[in-house]
Backbone:
């Protein structure tokens, strides 16, 4: 009948009109912007790889750890000034803004993870610490998780979490964004390093941690320095650097650091490398005006970590362009 035929024609006309409008809107949006082109606000999955097979998220995390972190932080093993190796020592140094007048520099940039100080009669103690640079909130969370795991190890085994165990735990923390299922893995009885999101207090991350880390361990006559980037890959070394200028600093450490250097020699080396790279980073020339500018605003802070208690007051604030012999004695 005519009403039915007219209704069918109306439906056909409506479908055709919708198809045409969708085509025109699609062509308009395609001409203005590509739908598959990522924007700065587009979330990139953690499994996404670039054309070279590298993880895009890990590249972003490494970039964040250098841009948001300190200019340079160094760590190297050293011996006693007289050549004695009776105790293990690690010299650490960093470049940072000077504190306001009247404020004393602290060691809050070195985060203790575990320390064997239960026996006060023991002259040589085991100590494990963490240095990080990058996004501060990420570093604080990682430090808290490491300390919690170290507490559980001590409560179960009455033993201090050493540098090797801390390195394995740190690697698991940094790779938790990959959401590995570790429920079927054998554990040490202290519980998972990263609680599952199903557990009470657990969580799940959607991106890598934007920090670079140095794990420091001393105990007896041994020292350990473990460098780790956001990928969780651990590299054990005798001298390491993290921060914005770390690439050049590592190259200079390979050329200038040598085994058997004393604490004073390592401090001299840190001042030399830090001054050279920081000038380049700030675009400053070597003249009196720039020297005064840098001395007013920045300082090099060095500390010595030892298995004995003889270096508890080894923190030194060094003028940025201090001469090696006059200011490091």
Residues:
């Amino acid at each position: 009948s005519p009403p039915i035929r007219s209704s069918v024609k109306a439906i056909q006309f409506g479908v055709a009109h919708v198809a045409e409008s969708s085509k025109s809107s699609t062509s308009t949006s395609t001409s203005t912007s590509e739908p598959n082109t990522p924007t700065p606000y587009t979330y990139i999955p953690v499994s996404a790889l670039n054309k070279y097979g590298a993880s895009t998220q890990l590249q972003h995390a490494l970039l964040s750890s250098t841009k948001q972190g300190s200019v340079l932080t160094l760590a190297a093993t050293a011996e006693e000034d007289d050549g004695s190796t009776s105790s293990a020592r690690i010299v650490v140094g960093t470049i940072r803004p000077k504190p306001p007048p009247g404020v004393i520099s602290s060691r809050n940039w070195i985060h203790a993870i575990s320390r064997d100080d239960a026996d006060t009669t023991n002259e040589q103690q085991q100590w494990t610490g963490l240095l990080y640079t990058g996004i501060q909130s990420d570093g604080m969370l990682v430090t808290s998780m490491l300390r919690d795991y170290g507490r559980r190890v001590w409560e179960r085994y009455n033993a201090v979490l050493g540098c090797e165990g801390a390195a394995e735990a740190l690697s698991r923390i940094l790779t938790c964004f990959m959401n590995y299922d570790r429920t079927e893995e054998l554990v040490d009885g202290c519980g998972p390093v990263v609680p599952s999101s199903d557990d009470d207090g657990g969580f799940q991350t959607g991106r890598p941690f934007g920090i670079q880390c140095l794990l420091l361990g001393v105990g007896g006559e041994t020292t350990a320095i473990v460098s780790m980037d956001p990928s969780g890959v651990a590299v054990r070394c005798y001298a390491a650097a993290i921060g914005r200028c770390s690439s050049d600093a590592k190259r200079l450490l390979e050329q200038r650091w040598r085994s058997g250097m004393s604490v004073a020699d390592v401090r001299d080396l840190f001042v030399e490398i830090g001054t050279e790279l920081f000038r380049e980073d700030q675009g400053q020339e070597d003249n009196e005006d720039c020297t005064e500018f840098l001395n007013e605003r920045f300082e090099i802070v060095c500390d010595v970590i030892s298995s004995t208690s003889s270096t508890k007051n080894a923190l030194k604030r060094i003028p940025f362009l201090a001469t090696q012999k006059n200011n490091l004695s």
Summary: Residues 1-5, 25-33, 309-313, 322-329 have pLDDT under 50 and may be disordered. Helices lie at 2-32, 56-67, 136-157, 163-174, 246-256, 263-282, 288-297, 324-327. Residues 2-32 form the longest helix (31 residues).
